[in-house]
Design brief:
heterodimer, A: 694 residues, alpha/beta, Dna Topoisomerase Vi A Subunit, Chain: A, domain 2, 4 domains, ten-stranded mixed beta sheet, 16 helices, B: 550 residues
Chain lengths: 694, 550
């Protein structure tokens, strides 16, 4: 049984392990073991191999994602880390963006920097914006810093000098000097971790990398050893926040690129489903217990970005966290999940989230002592959840407790009945998700109405129909296993690497030689990584340039041809910029000079076709058989309606039904509003389509 | 349940309005050319009902637009009656008295139509790159010298741009492309908001937003009245002195809290200045209202109902109510002081309501290379604005933030960005030890910034720095923050106001003020003090001498 593929995702509570064999998937959930996460992984792998009757040597490739880096930052459990900055700039980390992210809050506090001020050291040196040296690096005093680092028991160091992205010589030399004195140090340098202009973001990213590096490096060392001892010799690839795969060595050097690997797995799954159902433009909505994540896909691909914020002091308030400039899948996250708590504010308005009841005590209806009304409680009162069928019937939901929580905390305060309050709570959270999607789309000038909404996570399939109505979207897809974790997605990820470099130039003085040399360098860097993808497809190359009108602040990422450039290619690049600009902003501004700032090269190799992905024959249409009827509130209609109830497990591909309907499975329930028709696709996905309004 | 659900629908539509002004603002930020708009957030966007009453405003970086843009819409409606507005029309002005206080701020107002009926008005304001005249210099004798003045004017008729106006505007700006781009951005921003509003009306099958508007204004008004009811009633007067240009300026504020109104009057405040630091009344109103709202109802949505219960007055001819054609271009330096002036009154009304004084007026470095200014022919021509700030005042419940602007909400521009665009080099930008006023809660630290040029050429700085003679005062036993200072690296102290030429090879050093402390230093938590000493915020000497600890 050779050629099996293994995927492992370490989440906060559970570690998911999936093995893909020629005869299908075998998966398992084991408890995460935070003190030594490799223990949980190794246990899970052993169990899955045993259940599949496979040997460790049958595994051809192993793919791994983990939230360890994120958690280390949020819980402040990283290494004792120092920063070495250009003299006069050690406080860059503390100044942050130099603004108040909350306009009216006089008590606003910023996140504590990862490096305390006494460990923010300085080197005498200065590089100018064009890379020229204004002050040579003082080697003697730099070497002397090693002594301080040792005395302070520092494990990891970030070196970030002004304009280090433009001329890395001083950073590189400082690293040499330190390692010569203290070879045990982990050293992260800004020109490797984040070679981009803007000192705060670059320093923040480099420091975060240094902060998690010892932890991740030692964990990955123990894991590879443990797997080898088990007889698993296949290459191990790590899933990065960009949704691509990279080697363990890369992950050890750039551990900060692992931060959002879990949600990235979800995004890849969304991408896969979008291709299967032919949804070229889609919205992937993943709504779980505490948060909802929203991703826009164009041409079947999630939008990529190069910045995110972690460890926000005020959850979901932009600007209140630590900025990271790394390749990521562009997503927004808001406090909207099944456990989000509803209350009434001083204006008599319903407020939902960002506080969440979590898994414990959980929603009031779990009967575990939670007295605050949540989204799940409201869904229960509205008939969307079956009190006896929750989690495959393993857990009975307490309708009386849900009603009482909603009555006390919301209905009484508004002077309405419990059902109205429940409808209000759900309506507000649905509006929050729709608004977040709209604002996210408007940041990129993206259309919404023409998209397909792909709903995953335990709570999304209950809410997607209404959100679709609010967004003017006509098609909703609820994939097979919509409620299951992201490890499945890992198996669909390409082996890819994104290399980035800043080189500011005006297209009027386009220097093709310099740019060709830059891309050659980036290509060589990326090549080392993608060569590891044994069994994956041929190498595809894509290039991008961040361009803007000279003087304009917002850069647009423009895809440019992947080839050598001639001196007269500037006109072609300008044209590509214009067409992208027109698409996003509906206009171009004639006669303005265009400049390019940052250049990106992506090499990728597609995953092998899934062993179990063979397309089924087009099934014959049939009418699905309802298992019952339930009264459920349809917000589009503004009233309770009689919905047919179907068991998803019994629906065959081709099965058709009409809304209002509820489709029940173990991990989630899908609500098809009255205005939708549904069908099960050949792959088993539920596809809801709005009936055309006659 | 239909009645109840109807109310929830209104809440949802209210949320939608808040979201659509956010989209409106982001569109503006995305498309704008002016650096201060996109990097620093110097803009605003809002939606109004058909009577010109503001229903929602995006939360952006500029309290100076808080109330002024809202009033501006009323001026437009008076000039261009609603029944003359057509779909695709738009109007524009940079009138400091009918807009947001100086010629740099352009406001564009656009009616939104649905089913042939005018249903709402959108307005957006942005600080443009250049409008001619003396630029940012406060040395003009009157507004005529400060740049091109565009009165309330029709910008677009049924979708067609006023070409003559654009031609004139371009001809009067040193940055015509950016100015034109910014005007387009304002139009696009309003269009984005209107399109979203129309789709909401379609979705809910509504002909207009009159019911929604009534719902928003009534429920906000109820909460605002409750917030005012919780405050002590009476009148309190407080004064604050700042450095001023040629002579000190006194703000005298009298706060009167009635049963359902708050009134701030500035009788006794210094007369207007011959420099361009005067505030048109609308601008003084904006910053005062912002300060009041921070104390009274920080979480309340921002709309007409809140604004109409806060009244601000100042004697005509005072620096807070300077009539046309007074020079006003640098009015922010005065306006940004007003929350501190109001906080003084609130502290008297009930100690514990308001924080200590802070830096207040930003220490923005306005730098330029220009032979006309420096008398030196060589060197690059450039101009740069680098937003910087001293510390905030301590709060009754916590330390003040270091090097953070308040009340302004703008973001700093990265040093590397400024250096990539100009020959300027920052040699340091670091916290200034012992500058935060001592207290139970410490004032925020100021910072020290040192800048030179890469070229062997002089450069100019337009100095307008405050709190050099009159530092931020502590409250309730807290000490004053450190005063600011400006000097050359070679030693000479520079005046805090006026144009200075930094000689070739020399550097400018700005030591920015700290915020005032709150409560007696002796009451400071020993652990917090130990941490301050460890981090170098407080020197061991100050810990001993000021806090009386070892």
């Amino acid at each position: 049984m050779t050629g099996c593929r293994l995927a492992v995702d370490i989440g906060g509570t559970f570690t998911d392990v999936v093995l893909e064999t020629p005869s299908g998937f075998v998966s398992d959930k084991v408890l995460t073991t935070p003190a030594a996460p490799e223990q949980g992984v190794l246990n899970g792998v052993r169990q899955v191999l045993a259940r599949a009757n496979a040997a460790a040597s049958d595994v051809g490739i192993a793919i791994h994602g983990a939230t360890l880096a994120t958690n280390a930052i949020i819980e402040r459990k990283g290494a004792r880390t120092a920063l070495i900055a250009t003299r006069g700039f050690r406080d860059t980390l503390e100044f942050a963006f130099g603004h108040r992210f909350d306009q009216y809050d006089l008590l606003m506090q910023r996140p504590e920097p990862l490096v305390p001020r006494p460990l923010r050291l300085e080197a005498a040196e200065r590089v100018a914006a064009d890379g020229g040296v204004l002050l040579p690096l003082d080697e003697a005093s730099t070497r002397g810093l090693a002594k301080t680092l040792r005395a302070e028991k520092v494990e990891s160091v970030a070196i970030c000098f002004m304009h280090g992205y433009r001329n890395p010589a001083h950073e590189a030399r400082a690293r040499e000097l330190l390692l010569a004195e203290a070879p045990e140090l982990h050293v992260s340098v800004s020109h490797e971790i984040c070679p981009e202009i803007r000192e705060y973001e670059r320093t923040s990213t480099t420091v975060a990398n240094a902060y998690v590096q010892p932890l991740i490096a030692s964990y990955l060392g123990r894991l590879t050893e443990g797997l080898r001892a088990m007889g698993l010799t296949a290459p191990l690839l790590m899933i990065m926040s960009s949704g691509s795969l990279a080697s363990v060595e890369t992950a050890k050097r750039f551990p900060i690129r692992l931060v959002e690997s879990g949600p990235a797995g979800g995004a890849i799954l969304g991408q896969h489903v979008a291709r299967q159902v032919g949804a070229e433009k889609a919205i992937a909505l993943d709504m779980g217990g505490t948060t909802a994540k929203i991703i826009l896909l164009n041409n079947f691909e999630p939008r990529h970005a190069r910045s995110l914020e972690v460890a926000r002091v005020q959850r979901f308030l932009a600007g209140s966290g630590l900025p990271l400039r790394i390749p990521v899948i562009d997503m927004i996250e808001i406090g909207a999940g099944g456990g989000s708590i509803a209350s009434v504010d001083s204006l008599g308005r319903i407020v939902v989230g960002p506080r969440s009841a979590g898994a414990s005590p959980g929603p009031a209806c779990y009967g575990l002592g939670g007295g605050q009304p949540t989204i799940s409680d409201a869904d229960l009162l509205l008939g969307k959840l079956d009190p006896d069928g929750f989690a495959g019937g393993t857990m009975r939901l307490d309708e009386a407790a849900a009603r009482s929580a909603i009555e006390t905390e919301v209905a009484a305060k508004m002077g309405v009945d419990a059902a109205t309050a429940a409808a209000g709570i759900v309506e507000i959270v649905d509006e929050n998700m729709a608004n977040a999607t709209r604002v996210h789309a408007s940041d990129h000038g993206d259309e919404i109405e023409s998209r397909t909404l792909i709903a995953t996570g335990g709570a999304a399939p209950l809410h997607a129909g209404r959100i679709a109505r609010k967004l003017g979207v006509d098609r909703v897809v609820i994939p097979v296993g919509a409620g299951v974790g992201s490890a499945h997605g890992f198996l669909k990820a390409p082996v890819a690497y994104e290399a980035v470099a800043s080189h500011v130039l005006s297209l009027k003085s386009f220097d093709n030689t310099a740019i060709n040399a830059l891309f050659a360098r980036l290509r060589a860097e990326a090549r080392k990584i993608v060569d590891l993808g044994v069994g994956y497809g041929p190498i595809a190359e894509r290039r991008f340039a961040d361009m803007r009108y000279r003087g304009q602040g917002h850069d647009l990422q423009v895809e440019i041809p992947a080839r050598e450039y001639a001196a007269n290619d500037a006109a072609a690049l300008a044209e590509l910029f214009d067409s992208t600009y027109r698409r996003v902003y509906n206009r171009v501004i004639p006669g303005l000079a265009v400049e390019a700032l940052t250049w990106t090269l992506v090499l990728s190799r597609a995953p092998p076709a899934s062993l179990s992905d063979a397309p089924n024959a087009i099934p014959a249409a049939s009418l699905a058989e309802a298992a019952g009827v339930r009264r459920v509130f349809d917000a589009d209609v503004g009233a309770f309606v009689e919905a047919s109830v179907f068991a998803r497990g019994k629906m065959k591909p081709g099965a058709r039904f009409s809304g209002p309907a509820l489709i029940v499975e173990d991990q989630t329930t899908t609500f098809a509003p009255s205005a939708f028709d549904g069908i099960v696709s050949p792959e088993g996905h539920i596809v809801l389509t709005r009936r055309s309004q006659a | 349940m239909s009645d109840g659900f109807d109310r929830i629908k209104k809440q949802v539509m209210w949320d939608r309005l808040l979201s659509l002004v956010e989209e409106q603002a982001r569109t503006l930020m995305r498309v704008a050319f002016s650096t201060v708009v996109r990097e620093a957030g110097d803009l605003s966007a809002g939606v109004f009902n058909a009577r010109g009453e503001m229903l929602a405003q995006a939360v952006t970086g500029t309290p100076g637009h808080v109330n002024s843009m809202a009033r501006s819409v009323k001026h437009f409606i008076a000039e261009f009656p609603l029944d003359t507005m057509r779909d695709g029309d738009a109007y524009i002005t940079n009138d400091p008295w009918k807009g947001t206080g100086h010629l740099f701020d352009f406001t564009v107002v656009s009616p939104a139509f649905h089913g042939g009926k005018l249903v709402a008005i959108f307005a957006a304001t942005a600080h443009v790159a250049d409008i001619g005249g003396n630029g940012p210099s406060p040395d003009s004798r009157d507004v005529f010298a400060e740049g091109l003045f565009i009165p309330l004017t029709q910008l677009m008729s049924a979708g067609v741009m006023n070409a003559l106006l654009m031609k004139l505007a371009r001809a009067n700006s040193r940055e015509p492309d950016k100015l034109e781009g910014d005007i387009h951005a304002l139009v696009a921003s309003n269009e984005a908001g209107a399109a979203r509003l129309r789709s909401m009306l379609g979705e809910y099958g509504l002909a207009d937003i009159e019911d929604l508007s009534a719902h928003i204004l009534e429920s906000t008004d109820r909460s605002m009245r409750e917030a005012i009811a919780a405050l002590p009633k009476g009148s309190w007067t407080s004064s604050m002195r700042i450095d001023g240009f040629d002579e000190p300026i006194d703000f005298v504020a009298t706060l009167t809290i009635g049963d359902d109104m708050i009134h701030v009057d500035f009788a006794g405040t210094s007369p207007m200045s011959r420099h361009g630091v005067n505030c048109p009344m609308c601008y003084a109103d904006a910053y005062t209202t912002f300060g009041v709202k921070c104390v009274v109802a920080p979480r309340l949505a921002h709309n007409h109902a809140v604004l109409s219960r806060i009244k601000v007055t100042a004697p005509e001819g005072s620096i807070l109510n300077a009539p046309f054609p007074a020079p006003v271009t640098a009015r922010a330096i005065i306006g940004q002081m007003l929350p501190d002036a109001v906080f003084g009154c609130f502290d008297k009304a009930r100690p514990g309501l308001a924080p200590a004084e802070g830096t207040a007026a930003s220490w923005t470095l306005r730098l330029a290379g220009d032979p006309g200014l420096t008398g030196h022919a060589g060197g690059a021509r450039f101009s740069a604005q680098s937003f910087q700030s001293g510390g905030m005042g301590a709060h009754p419940l916590g330390d003040g933030l270091a090097a953070t602007p308040f009340p302004s909400g703008v973001r700093a521009i990265a040093v590397e960005i400024t250096e990539a665009l100009t020959p300027i080099v920052f040699w340091r930008k670091e916290l200034r030890a012992d500058s935060g006023g001592a207290g139970k809660f410490r004032g925020g630290l100021g910072q020290i910034v040192e800048v030179g040029s890469r070229e062997d050429a002089p450069f100019a700085v337009f100095a307008r720095f405050e709190r050099v003679e009159n530092p931020a005062r502590g409250r309730n036993g807290g000490c004053d923050g450190a005063a600011g200072a400006v000097r050359l690296a070679s030693g000479k102290t520079l005046a805090s106001k006026g144009l200075h030429v930094i000689p070739a090879g020399d550097r400018l050093i700005a030591e920015m003020p700290g915020g005032g402390g709150y409560g007696a230093p002796a009451e400071r938590d020993p652990q917090a003090l130990a941490r301050d000493v460890r981090d170098g915020y407080v020197s061991p000497a100050a810990a001993r001498d000021v806090y009386r600890r070892e």
